[in-house]
C-alpha cells in the first residue's frame, strides 16, 4: 500500500469507521492498533461536536447537553466534513433535523437551527460599504424610476412558523425559554450592521417589495407592487419609506440603473 492509499484508508476509518487499515497499524505497549485508531476517530467526532456546539449554542442549551451530543453524533456520521474549514460544517443541520425523527417530532428545532445558522452566516459575510441617505437625496427625480439596488451579502430573508426568535432571545439572555407556539409563517430578516447581527420581522408587503428589489427590479416596479398591496394611495411614498428603512439598516450597498 503506497502513501496515498494509506492516507485514504486512514481517512476512511476516521470519518466512516471503515475497516481495512487496522492491519497496517502497529500495536504498541499499552495501546493496541484498534485503540490507537479509535483515539483519532473519537477526536475527529469530539472536535466536530465542539464546532456544532459553538455554532448552535442556543439550540444546544434548549435541547440539553446529552440530547445535543446525540444529535451531533448522528449529524457528524450522516454528514462527514467536506470543507477545508470547519466554519461551514453546520450548514446542513437545519435540513438534517427536518428529516430526522427528532426534528419531525419537534419541528421547532429545525427552525431554531436555521435561525442560528443565518446569524452565523450574516456575521461571516463579506464586508460591504452601505449607501447613505445623502446618496439618494443627490439623485435627480428623473433617475428614480430606473433605479436598482444591490444589497449587502449578509442579508437573508426567510420565514418562521414557530416563536423561535422569542426562545432564542430568552435563552441568549440566560432566561427560561417560553413555551413553543406555532402559527402562520411570518417573514423575517437577518443581516449584519457594523459588527453586530440584526434581525426583525417583516410586514408581508415589505417582504414582497424587498424580494423584488433583491431580484433586480427597478424602483418603478417596486412602486407598482406597493400600489397593488398597500391601503394608501401614495405608492411612491410607501416604497420610499421602505427604501429609507433599508438605508438606515445599512442593507443597501450599491445603487444602479437600467
Describe this structure in words.
The structure is a single chain. The protein is α+β, with helices and mostly antiparallel strands and 258 residues long. The chain has two domains: 1-124, no CATH class; 128-258, no CATH class. Helix content is 53%, strand content 14%. The strands form two sheets. It has a three-stranded antiparallel sheet with strand order 2-3-4. A two-stranded antiparallel ribbon has the order 1-5. β3 and β4 form a beta hairpin. The protein is elongated.
Largest beta sheet: strand ordering: 2-3-4
The residue-averaged pLDDT reads 88
In the predicted model, the low-confidence regions spanning at least 5 consecutive residues are none
Number of domains: 2
In short:
Helix content is 53%, strand content 14%. With 258 residues, the protein is α+β, with helices and mostly antiparallel strands.
Protein topology:
Blueprint: H1 3-16, H2 33-55, H3 57-63, H4 65-78, H5 93-99, H6 101-105, H7 108-124, H8 133-137, E1 147-151, E2 156-162, H9 164-172, E3 182-193, E4 196-201, H10 204-214, H11 219-229, H12 235-248, E5 252-257
Antiparallel strand pairs: 1-5, 2-3, 3-4
Helix pairs in contact: 1-2, 2-4, 3-4, 5-7, 10-11, 11-12
Amino acid at each position: 500500500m503506497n502513501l496515498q492509499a494509506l492516507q485514504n484508508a486512514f481517512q476512511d476509518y476516521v470519518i466512516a469507521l471503515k475497516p481495512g487499515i487496522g492491519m497496517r497499524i502497529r500495536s504498541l505497549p499499552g495501546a493496541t492498533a484498534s485503540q490507537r485508531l479509535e483515539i483519532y476517530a473519537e477526536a475527529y467526532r469530539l472536535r466536530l461536536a465542539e464546532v456544532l456546539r459553538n455554532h448552535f449554542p442556543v439550540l444546544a442549551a434548549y435541547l440539553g447537553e446529552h440530547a445535543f451530543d446525540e444529535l451531533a453524533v448522528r449529524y457528524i456520521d450522516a454528514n462527514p466534513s467536506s470543507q477545508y474549514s470547519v466554519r461551514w460544517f453546520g450548514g446542513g443541520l437545519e435540513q438534517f433535523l427536518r428529516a430526522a425523527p427528532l426534528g419531525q417530532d419537534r419541528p421547532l428545532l429545525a427552525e431554531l437551527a436555521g435561525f442560528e445558522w443565518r446569524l452565523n452566516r450574516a456575521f461571516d459575510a463579506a464586508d460591504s460599504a452601505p449607501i447613505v441617505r445623502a446618496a439618494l437625496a443627490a439623485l435627480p427625480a428623473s433617475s428614480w424610476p430606473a433605479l436598482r439596488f444591490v444589497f449587502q451579502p449578509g442579508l437573508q430573508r426567510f420565514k418562521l412558523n414557530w416563536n423561535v426568535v422569542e426562545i432564542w432571545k430568552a435563552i441568549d439572555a440566560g432566561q427560561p425559554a417560553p413555551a413553543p407556539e406555532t402559527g402562520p409563517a411570518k417573514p423575517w430578516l437577518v443581516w449584519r450592521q457594523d459588527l453586530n447581527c440584526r434581525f426583525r420581522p417583516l410586514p408581508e408587503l415589505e417582504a414582497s417589495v424587498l424580494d423584488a428589489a433583491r431580484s433586480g427590479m427597478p424602483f418603478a416596479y417596486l412602486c407598482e407592487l406597493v400600489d397593488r398591496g398597500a391601503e394608501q394611495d401614495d405608492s411612491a411614498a410607501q416604497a420610499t419609506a421602505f427604501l429609507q428603512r433599508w438605508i438606515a439598516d445599512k442593507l443597501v450597498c450599491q445603487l444602479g440603473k437600467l
